[in-house]
Write a structure and sequence with these properties.
The complex is a heterodimer of chains A (426) and B (452). Chain A has 16 helices and eleven strands. By secondary structure, chain A is α+β, with helices and mostly antiparallel strands. In chain A, the strands form two sheets. Chain A has a six-stranded mixed sheet, sandwiched between helices. A five-stranded mixed sheet of chain A has the order 7-11-8-10-9, sandwiched between helices. The longest helix of chain A is centred in the N-terminal third of the chain and has 20 residues. With 452 residues, chain B is α+β, with helices and mostly antiparallel strands. Chain B has two domains: 203 residues, Cytochrome Bc1 Complex, Chain A, domain 1, CATH 3.30.830; 200 residues, Metalloenzyme, LuxS/M16 peptidase-like (Cytochrome Bc1 Complex, Chain A, domain 1), CATH 3.30.830. Helices cover 40% and strands 19% of the residues of chain B. Chain B is built from 16 helices and twelve strands. In chain B, strands 1-2-6-3-5-4 form a six-stranded mixed sheet, with helices on both faces. Chain B has a six-stranded mixed sheet with strand order 9-10-8-11-7-12, sandwiched between helices. In chain B, helix 9 packs across helix 12. Classes of the chains: A alpha+beta (426), B alpha+beta (452). Chains A and B meet through helix 3, helix 4, helix 5, helix 11 and helix 13 of A and helix 2, helix 4, helix 10, strand 10 and helix 12 of B.
């Protein structure tokens, strides 16, 4: 199995600092171009949140040589698909195109890396501010339970912590985005020395490297990237928040701060979440949903990012069941893992699930290339599938009990989302 | 030296793409199989399609197909529910069940080395589900809670009620998950009878894509799928009635946005006008660079996104525009949508057609990337009874669509007088705007779709 996961690649660093990774896979006549900028919402500051995500919009509004609305149009006309996404730590932009349109994709990506500000106008900003405010309303404000994550982050992390606010930003900050701030944010973070470019698929190494140099090498190196300041984040006490929403079934969220991406504990916590809620035999699922039938659903996950991570358990109460009852049952199951650990059968089942998911994840070129970029950006080594899976293979059954004790006894944030008090329906 | 960036680079060379070839065969018990061999990864994807979707729900038992699909893997053969799940999980196989209007789909993704065991487990689910009373009571409650929960989601409220209105008096009007009073009245015996009626070999099709030899596959399938054939029920639709244009409104307290749906019923999928419809719709609202999206998102900033589409069940279809807009722009947004509908029926330019054909033709190879994508396309070939050379002639059929054909299709298949408008939003903000933009009746509905 390691044969398939041990991928071949070439890595180069241009003079301006841009890292370039090339990966050949000729099974289909398509190429994926995937660019990570090491800027996310963690690079923002209080009062000016949402910039990284705003750029995910502005980067599609044209650049010096690409008229507004043409970015999408060029790629669509070539039969490609494209998008971008923003997280705490990074923003990525990607397109998959037929092999013969690779140069088009490089032209587009390099034009917006090198020459975006030349085409940035107040009108474009105002338009995309409206779009982002609508995105916020549609995906968060008007969505059942849609505000839960930002409530959790802003309570788990203190005000000066880079993970305190949601990636889309607070509405009051989005409303007052200013052109000058937008320009400065771009100048600071969207430079070749703060990016990693992976090109995978139906390519020839030499000719693609030449093309990359042609389009990216003349873009000047940017300034040194400002350090992110991380305050000490220990939660000093348990916090309980009750939030009313237009919903009928209440939900409880329990969140502990844990550890960052790619650590050994990170892998153990992934396995813990699988043992708790990864299948019908997951302990929490089995107890709350299957046997006692007090929850409609339950899930848990280790959400790990560059600076830190969190372990979250979410359960939806059946009508008439109190969230305190759910919490008690969850605590009972967690205590059981902390006291007696997990069985060999549970451990093996989880490891097998992880192993096969690595193989399944190789099917789609776009997501494969994005994972290569993830490895390159965070681990400095694009070919890390074997290493990554190895983190799980080397775990011991007792590691799961250990991480549960290490993190889940600490202070936590408890969020209840409950139905609004009934108002007159006139 | 600075390079010249002023014009987009030209394409280099041509693309060579070989469409995956499929084998077709029938098992000894009558199940029909389509198989594509794909050896790039040691995995196998299997889709089992059972012709028993929610359109077969008896009257007043809406949700029966869905509940049956929830119960079919709650124990089978000698395994109880948890044991069965453990068997799939411990070999890393991913098994899912989904219910649509037309069919129930069972999908399996397995490592090639564990395919035989995965298939054995699937055959148990398919041929000897336990249907215990305990499981029934548990899953029935889960389904009624799910229905409650869906009714909190403005987007779901809009989509499900829109179907209910436009598919009036036909079996496509009901949501697959049913409604609370119907689901409460279903018994375990109903489920067992529904299973017996629909989970029969000659009512079942398999689409398999992956790393296995044909002979070995046939051997394994015939080993595990042995139940013999019995009756099938085919259902043909009562032709949905054409409706006169009308407005509907559903109130949602303090809604942050208005969900808008506009459209009408339409024909089922056929090979003669499918591509002309696809091209016309693509220009109107089927892609990012469509008229609707460029206007309402990129110009006006009313919405995060808007799309339109002809969608197809086996026996009928519909045309639908969907978006979510800021409450205060609801009226303006609908006016702009009407303007774009009128526009697409007036003129379509050569460059729009050229652009769209290029988009549809050049993305063709990428449609066959993953095992599940290939399985999906073959499944839709079965669902809509498409000819076996459908994908071989795909590009040719797009190329040969003429401008006249596309313009005529837009005029005939998007029918202004029949457009149904549905808005889910805050009445205090939205109602005055609707009254301003239309003289038509505005029917006010509850979340359950019943007129207030």
């Amino acid at each position: 199995m390691n044969d398939i996961l041990d991928i071949k690649y070439e890595k180069h660093t241009l003079k301006n600092g841009l890292e370039v990774v090339l990966y050949q896979d000729k099974s289909l006549p398509i190429v994926s171009v995937n660019l990570w900028y090491k800027v996310g919402s963690a690079n923002e500051t209080n009062g000016k949140t949402g910039f990284a995500h705003l750029f995910e919009h502005m980067m599609f509004q044209g650049s010096e040589n690409v008229p507004k609305e043409k970015h999408f149009k060029f790629i669509e006309e070539a039969g490609g698909n494209l998008n971008g996404s923003t997280s705490f730590d990074r923003t990525n932009y990607f397109e998959t195109v037929p092999t013969n349109s690779l140069e088009l994709a490089l032209w587009l990506e390099s034009d917006r890396m090198g020459f975006l500000l030349e085409a940035l106008t107040q009108e474009k900003l105002d338009n995309q501010k409206d779009v982002v405010m609508n995105e916020r309303r549609q995906r968060y404000d008007n969505q059942p339970y849609g505000l839960s994550w930002e409530i959790i982050f802003s309570n788990l992390f203190p005000k000066n912590h880079p993970y305190h606010w949601p990636t889309i930003g607070w509405m009051k900050d989005i409303e007052k985005f200013e052109l000058n701030d937008v320009r400065n944010f771009f100048k600071t973070y969207y430079s070749p020395n703060n990016a990693s470019l992976v090109i995978g698929g139906d390519i020839e190494y030499d000719s693609v490297l030449e093309l990359v140099k042609k389009y990216f090498e003349e873009i000047p190196k940017g300034e040194t990237i400002p350090e992110i300041v991380i305050p000490k984040t220990q939660l000093s006490e348990n916090k309980k928040i009750i939030h009313e929403d237009s919903i009928q079934l209440s939900k409880i969220y329990l969140t502990w701060e844990t550890t960052e991406l790619y650590t050994d504990d990170d892998a153990s916590l992934d396995v813990l979440s699988d043992v708790l809620t990864g299948s019908k035999n997951g302990r929490l699922f089995k107890s709350l949903v299957f046997e006692k039938q007090i929850a409609q659903d339950v899930s848990s996950f280790q959400y790990s990012a560059n600076l830190t991570g969190m372990f979250i358990v979410v359960a939806t109460a059946k009508p008439g069941v109190s969230l305190d009852e759910l919490k008690n049952e969850i605590q009972t199951e967690l205590n059981e893992v902390m006291t007696n650990g997990i069985s060999e059968k549970e451990f093996n089942r989880s490891i097998n699930t992880v192993k096969s998911s690595f193989i399944y994840s190789l099917q789609n070129l776009n997501s494969l290339v994005n994972q290569i970029n993830n490895y390159n950006t965070n681990l400095g080594e694009p070919n890390s599938f074997v290493y990554d899976l190895g983190r799980f293979k080397k775990l011991k059954q007792s590691s799961i009990k250990d991480v549960a004790n290490k993190y889940l006894k600490n202070n936590y944030v408890e969020l209840h989302i409950v139905p609004k008090e009934n108002k007159d329906e006139d | 030296m600075k390079i010249n960036r002023s014009a987009p680079p030209k394409q280099k060379g041509t693309i060579e793409f070989h469409l995956p070839k499929f084998n077709k065969f029938t098992l000894n018990n009558g199940i029909k199989v389509l198989f594509v061999q794909k050896k790039s990864l040691p995995i196998i994807q299997l889709n089992m399609i059972v012709n028993g979707g929610s359109k077969f729900d008896p009257i007043n038992k809406g949700g029966l197909a869905h509940l049956t699909s929830m119960l079919i893997d709650e124990g089978a053969g000698d395994y109880d529910s948890l044991q069965l799940d453990n068997e799939f999980e411990s070999i890393g196989s991913i098994f899912n069940i989904g219910t649509g209007n037309d069919s129930i789909g069972l999908t399996l993704l397995s490592l090639a080395e564990n395919f035989e065991r995965s298939l054995e487990l699937l055959s148990l689910v398919n041929q000897s589900p336990s249907f215990t009373n305990n499981s029934f009571l548990r899953e029935q409650k889960k389904l009624t809670s799910k229905i409650l929960q869906n009714n909190d989601d403005p987007s779901y409220i809009a989509t499900s009620n829109f179907d209910k209105i436009i598919f009036a008096d036909t079996y496509y009007k009901n949501p697959t998950i049913g409604n609370i009073s119907d689901v409460t009245s279903i018994t375990n015996n109903d489920v067992i009878q529904f299973y017996k009626k629909h989970f029969t070999p000659n009512n079942t099709e398999l689409v398999i894509v992956g790393s296995i030899e044909l002979e070995n596959l046939q051997l394994l399938l015939n080993k595990f799928f042995v139940t013999t054939a019995n009756k099938i029920e085919n259902k043909s639709i009562a032709v949905p009635l054409k409706q006169k244009s009308k407005f509907y409104f559903i109130h949602k307290d303090n809604a942050a946005q208005s969900e808008i749906r506009i459209g009408h019923i339409s024909d089922k999928r056929n090979e003669t006008d499918y591509f002309a419809k696809t091209i016309a719709n693509s220009i109107l609202g089927g892609q990012f660079s469509s008229r609707l999206n460029l206007n309402l998102r990129e110009d006006k900033g009313f919405t995060y996104g808007i799309n339109s589409g002809f969608t197809y069940h086996s026996d009928a279809g519909n045309f639908e525009i969907a978006t979510s807009v800021n409450g205060k722009n609801t009226g303006e947004a609908i006016k702009e949508i009407k303007k774009e509908i009128a526009g697409i029926k007036t003129e379509i330019t050569d460059s729009e057609i050229e652009f769209t054909k290029s988009y549809l033709i050049k993305r063709f190879p990428a449609m066959f990337e993953t095992n599940s994508q290939i399985a999906h396309h073959l499944s839709s070939m079965l669902k809509h009874n498409l000819s076996e050379n459908y994908f071989d002639t795909y590009i040719e059929r797009i190329t040969s669509c003429s401008k006249e054909e596309i313009e005529a299709t837009a005029k005939e298949k998007i029918i202004t007088d029949e457009l149904i408008y549905l808005v889910v939003g805050d009445k205090n903000i939205v109602m005055p705007q609707l009254k301003e933009i239309t003289d038509l009746d505005i029917a006010v509905l509850g979340v359950d779709g019943n007129e207030l």
